[in-house]
Amino acid sequence: MTDINQVIDQMPLEVYERLRSAAELGKWEDGSVLSEAQRESTLQVVMMYQARKLDQTEHFTIAAGGKINELSKAELKKQFRGESIAEFKAEEL
């Protein structure tokens, strides 16, 4: 059996993204639902990949070394200041 560390080290980004999507949505790309055991295992692999291979600074992501990034309210406000998600004209509503 392959060591989980080897699996993470050799995992392509595309596979990580598919696993992350499955963990977030609770289902595979084909629509079949993950069992609770599959979801837990998938989430663990996603978190390990994030900790080992990604340099993330976003709120509630896993940073290098396995630390969870938790930004303060002030940091979050600063990060999203001035960015509008969408703009609508009155006649479009």
Keywords summarizing the entry:
93 residues, mainly alpha
Q: Uncertain regions: pLDDT < 50 for 5+ in a row? A: none
Shape: extended
- What proportion of the residues form beta strands (DSSP E)? under 5%
Helix content: 40-55%
Number of strands: 0
Quote the distance from N terminus to C terminus: 57 Å
Largest sheet: none
How many individual helices?
4
Radius of gyration: 17 Å
Average predicted confidence as pLDDT: 80
Oligomeric state: single chain
What's the number of structural domains? 1
The H/E string reads HHHH
Q: Structural class from helices and strands?
A: mainly alpha
Could you please describe the fold and organization of this structure?
The chain contains 4 helices and no strands. With 93 residues, the chain is an all-alpha fold. It has one domain. α2 crosses α3. The relative contact order is 0.10.
Short description:
With 93 residues, the protein is mainly α. It contains four helices and no strands.
Which helices and strands occur, and which strands form pairs?
Layout: H1 4-10, H2 13-25, H3 36-53, H4 73-80
